[in-house]
Write a structure and sequence with these properties.
By secondary structure, the protein is of the alpha+beta class. The chain contains eight helices and nine strands. The strands form four sheets. Strands 8-1-9 form a three-stranded mixed beta sheet. A two-stranded antiparallel ribbon has the order 2-3. Strands 4-5 form a two-stranded antiparallel ribbon. The chain is globular and about 45 Å long.
Length: 241
Amino acid sequence: MNVSNQNRRDFLKKSAAITIAPGVLLYSISQAHHTERPVKSTTRWGMLIDTNKCINDCTACLDACTEEHGLTEEVPIEIKPVWIRKVTLRDKQTGKESSLPIMCQHCEKPPCVDVCPTGASFKRDDGIVLVDRHICIGCRYCMMACPYKARSFVHEALENQKPHSPRGKGTVEACNFCVYRIDTGVGPACIEACETAGHQAMIYGDINNPDSEIHKKLKEMSSSVLRPDLKLNPGVRYQGL
């Protein structure tokens, strides 16, 4: 038997042994020294964005995401990965304009998961939608299925990656709610940046927990989701639209 083929098979066997489930290897190694929160089916992580507090020309959340995940490669704008973007909506009747960040909406019924042929796109029990880059084949079906255009494809080889947020050429990626931060009791980078900027336009938490701030606000005030007609029940909700 060819020695190189045997070595490759040995490597794959070892990889299979440590890749217990989609996403386990991706985050467990970089966070092994932390005490992680258990993933529970009773938890539903979500985000609430108040468009009345979101400033049009503020890019704090975008800049924080870029820095946190190392999205700094110099490539043409048309192929540059974007995990969060801001759009401006204008009410035709009143002329009111609203600025809102859009990222992966972490749907309860994610279309990206339904169309993925390998299981690389998956949803955790706590509602966070992720991509396991170890088994992503780059078919981009999930990108076509996402109604929010929230996923990007990595076209070029990457350098200077962040150990807590590994990426890879030929794979799809999207906002992961800074899952490794949430698992260690810290909020997403965009939330922290918005607070630091003094806007407090974004909050996150367990939607199912009646004691959480996000649960209380959703109960007290009206909010909406993007594309409610699709009945995907996104984990990201908006006020002021």
